[in-house]
């Protein structure tokens, strides 16, 4: 299994040799870019059992160290890069890192996840987390290697797109194999669309974390591995990993994305009328047409699904070079702009967003919003500073995205984010913006999917559907969904749920949120979890992996509790930043223009806007949240959060 995953360099030893680090001993680096001060600390085991690593430990760090009300693009805002606790092992699909910050787009906590190889190499370099505050006087990058941290000059990389920046950083290091997570022009210009990319197919999207990096003059993070990882029980770990991999490749969802690519589920969204902008595609792009452009497939570190197709990069000057993508949201969000022979325009959009360093979801959805405003006569091209994008015109949409990334030219107003752009445009433009808490939804007709609609409304980061229960679209029977919720690790969970009721939907959303939070903390891609297919990884698997890989003895109920703790801590952070219960809602634009669509799943009833309040109230009950949107004190006490922040690290 290690050879198949290309992991021959890993150390599988029951007891580490002198100088070898066990999986739990990676460090946290604290970097102050204003003063140049760097220090490192280890994570107490009590925090490991409470927060694991990755996203949820990022949450703890944010709640402890972020100054309430700090300017999101100021030196006091902190940025936390965290690798999942299973990264660096051959655990299936454990390759995810998370950038956590207070989002300049929403003002709330944001999690920008990305896969590839960066997170494993970051752990092999000796670190689980990097906490960044302050602002450098000049462009820099942060380099991790052999347990040490450096702030390095990045002036040679400043102004470069993400691909050239990664190459420039590797040249500065003299190491062509170094992993680099870099921003492009969008991050440097502080566009709210900005992301950081570790390769053309893996970016830290949603929330504008790239703009936070740019505001700190931080061009990139880089890592070079060399410290081996030893495991508690390698024989048991490899057996568990083999079983999980076999289930993944044999699952219905796994087979689909392995053969059809990460964008395959977009066709499901189109079939039930969820495509962005509430507008039906001008013509259905052919699966075969997109696949015909593929040159192969690639996988994140240790992933058996290999869902990322590779293509020739259509960008000028990179003819013949390999590019990765597109993913689910590239296709579903750009679909309204694609002509009948739209495969090439889709690949150009995927390549352009990666080079510019922008979020493909936010950029495409804002371009679609501008097109709808122009189509409805609410704004003109003049209001947008030039020609408005139009459905069916991919070049116009790309021009709008490029201007928004550069914060200059026609449609540059979109670079401010949807809510601020709507404030400037006025004339009821906000009413056509499908968003939650200031972040665009990646699908603008959530009516056919009640649980996804609820997950969007109550999501802590805004209009991000990564943690939504996608099993709702898979045709999974109601009885199986109830069993999944009941199998979360508590014997009484799910008892008495009536299918297709607010209580059932709320319990399903609670389950999927906890599942995603734990997956992000372990570094497991949510595509490889039971969020998408009941046969994939979940709490019982993670208990076994943690025990055999790290020696942490945490049963499924306690892992479930870690997920509960993370979601509660994120809500506490947002409330501290001024969020109220009124933000847990969907506007009418989230239900599109055509709710008269049929669902694939027999017996399901679409949700209407007026029914959302009952769903949210049911969610508050299952999460022990009061009517004002605040977690009840008894619930916080039970989770050990009543005295936070405790500043243990």
How does this structure look, described?
The chain is an alpha+beta fold. It is 36% helix and 13% strand. The protein has a 6-stranded mixed beta sheet with strand order 3-2-7-4-5-6, with helices on both faces. A 6-stranded mixed beta sheet has the order 9-8-13-10-11-12. The protein has a 3-stranded antiparallel beta sheet with strand order 15-16-17. It is globular and about 60 Å long. The model is unreliable at 1-21, 277-283, 489-497 and 594-603 (pLDDT under 50).
Protein traits:
6-stranded mixed β-sheet; alpha+beta; 649 residues; 22 helices
Question: Strands, helices and their partners?
Answer:
Blueprint: E1 21-22, E2 27-32, E3 38-42, H1 45-51, H2 54-65, E4 79-83, E5 97-102, E6 109-114, H3 118-124, E7 127-133, E8 140-145, E9 148-153, H4 162-173, E10 179-183, H5 185-188, E11 196-199, E12 202-204, H6 209-215, E13 218-224, E14 229-230, H7 234-250, H8 252-260, H9 266-271, H10 287-292, E15 294-298, E16 308-312, E17 322-324, H11 328-334, H12 343-356, H13 360-375, H14 394-406, H15 418-425, E18 435-436, E19 439-440, H16 450-458, H17 478-486, H18 502-522, H19 539-550, H20 556-576, H21 612-622, H22 633-638
Parallel strand pairs: 1-14, 2-7, 8-13
Antiparallel strand pairs: 2-3, 4-5, 4-7, 5-6, 8-9, 10-11, 10-13, 11-12, 15-16, 16-17, 18-19
């Amino acid at each position: 299994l290690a050879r198949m995953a290309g992991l021959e360099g890993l150390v599988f030893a029951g007891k580490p040799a002198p100088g070898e680090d066990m999986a739990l001993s990676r460090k946290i680096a604290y970097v102050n870019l204003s003063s140049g001060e760097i220090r490192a600390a280890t994570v107490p085991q009590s925090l490991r059992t409470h927060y694991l690593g990755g996203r949820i430990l990022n949450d703890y760090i944010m709640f402890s160290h972020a100054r309430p009300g700090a300017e999101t693009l100021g030196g006091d805002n902190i940025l936390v890069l965290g690798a999942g606790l299973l990264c660096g092992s051959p655990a299936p699909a454990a390759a995810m890192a998370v950038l956590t910050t207070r989002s300049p787009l929403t003002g709330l906590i944001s999690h920008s996840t990305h896969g590839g190889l960066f997170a494993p190499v970051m752990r092999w370099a000796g670190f689980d987390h990097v906490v960044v505050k302050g602002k450098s006087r000049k462009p820099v990058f942060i380099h991790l290697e052999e347990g040490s941290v450096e702030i390095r000059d990045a002036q040679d990389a400043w102004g470069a797109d993400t691909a050239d920046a990664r190459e420039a950083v590797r040249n500065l290091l003299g190491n062509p194999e170094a992993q680099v997570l870099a921003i492009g022009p969008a991050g440097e210009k502080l566009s709210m669309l900005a992301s950081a990319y570790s390769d053309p197919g893996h970016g830290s999207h949603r929330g504008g974390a790239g703009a936070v990096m740019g505001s700190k003059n931080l061009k990139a993070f880089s890592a070079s591995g060399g410290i081996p990882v030893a495991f508690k029980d390698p024989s048991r770990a490899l057996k568990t990993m083999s079983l999980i991999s076999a289930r993944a490749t044999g699952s219905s969802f796994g087979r689909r994305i392995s053969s059809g690519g990460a964008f395959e589920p977009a066709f499901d969204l189109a079939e039930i009328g969820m495509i962005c902008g509430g507008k039906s595609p001008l013509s259905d792009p052919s699966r075969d047409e997109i696949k015909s452009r593929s040159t192969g497939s690639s996988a994140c570190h240790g992933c058996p699904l290999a869902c990322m197709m590779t293509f020739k990069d259509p960008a000028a000057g990179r003819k013949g070079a390999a590019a990765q993508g597109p993913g689910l949201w590239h296709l579903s969000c750009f679909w309204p702009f694609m002509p009948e022979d739209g495969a090439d325009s889709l690949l150009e959009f995927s390549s352009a967003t990666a080079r510019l360093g922008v979020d493909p979801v936010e950029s495409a959805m804002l371009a679609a919003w501008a097109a709808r405003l122009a189509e409805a006569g609410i704004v003109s091209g003049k209001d947008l500073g030039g020609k408005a994008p139009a459905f069916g015109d991919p070049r116009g949409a790309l021009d709008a995205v490029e201007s928004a990334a550069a914060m200059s030219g026609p449609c540059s107003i979109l670079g401010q984010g949807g809510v601020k752009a709507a404030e400037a445009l006025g004339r009821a433009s906000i009413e056509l913006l499908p968003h939650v808490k200031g972040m665009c939804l990646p699908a603008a007709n959530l009516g056919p999917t009640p649980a996804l609609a609820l997950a969007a409304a109550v999501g802590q980061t805004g209009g991000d559907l990564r943690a939504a229960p996608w099993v709702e679209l898979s045709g999974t029977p109601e009885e199986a969904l109830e069993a999944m919720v009941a199998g979360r690790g508590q014997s009484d969970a799910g008892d008495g749920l009536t299918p297709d009721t607010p209580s059932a939907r709320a319990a399903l959303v609670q389950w999927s949120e906890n599942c995603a939070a734990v997956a992000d903390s372990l570094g497991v891609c949510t595509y490889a979890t039971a969020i998408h297919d009941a046969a994939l990884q979940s709490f019982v698997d993670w208990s076994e992996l943690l025990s055999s890989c790290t020696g942490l003895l945490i049963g499924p109920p306690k892992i479930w509790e870690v997920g509960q703790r993370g979601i509660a801590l994120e809500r506490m952070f947002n409330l501290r930043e001024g969020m109220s219960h009124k933000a847990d809602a969907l506007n009418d634009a989230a239900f599109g223009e055509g709710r008269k669509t049929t669902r694939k799943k027999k017996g399901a009833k679409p949700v209407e806007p007026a029914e959302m309040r009952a769903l949210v109230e049911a969610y508050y009950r299952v999460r022990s949240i009061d009517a004002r949107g605040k977690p009840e004190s008894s619930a916080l006490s039970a989770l050990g959060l009543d005295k936070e922040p405790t500043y243990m690290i």
